[in-house]
Amino acid sequence: MVIDQKRGHVLAGGETSKKLMGVVRKREAARRDLVAHFVYLAEEAGLDTADGFLKSAESTFTDLSLQPYSGTLVVSSLPELQGIRRWRVRDFENWLIFYLPTQNGVSIIRVLHATQDWWSLLSVTD
User: What's this model's pTM, rounded to 2 decimal places?
Assistant: First the structure.
């Protein structure tokens, strides 16, 4: 069995590749964030952009679930922030994904705009 790490496929002989899936768990705060960003983008940039944002976010979540340690570690002395990593939403670089690696994927904590005071917002997670 050969694993294509870049695409997350298992390649076995002449068989069709099968997508490997990591588990993505979105916490309630992250779900609220996604809705708020969708509404903002739909109003300011149009429905196509808002839809594109959600698709890019979900795709980035999946990528992170396959390589959960690819994000930058958020360095903090606060115990509730230990282990949290940060990564940008693909094609929407002003939006940051804050997540924790898990045994079989990632737990998405928040999805915040880079200009938001994310230090204080992360301190109040559900």
Answer: 0.80
Q: Mean pLDDT for the chain?
A: 85
- CA atoms of 71 and 99, how far apart (whole Å): 9
pLDDT at 19: 54
Sign of CA dihedral 125, 69, 58, 21: negative
Dihedral angle over CA of 78, 64, 70, 83, nearest 10: 20
Closest to 89 measured CA to CA, from 25, 27, 37: 37
Whether the Cβ atoms of residue 56 and residue 98 lie closer than 8 Å to each other? no
Q: Which residue has the tokens 């990632």?
A: 106
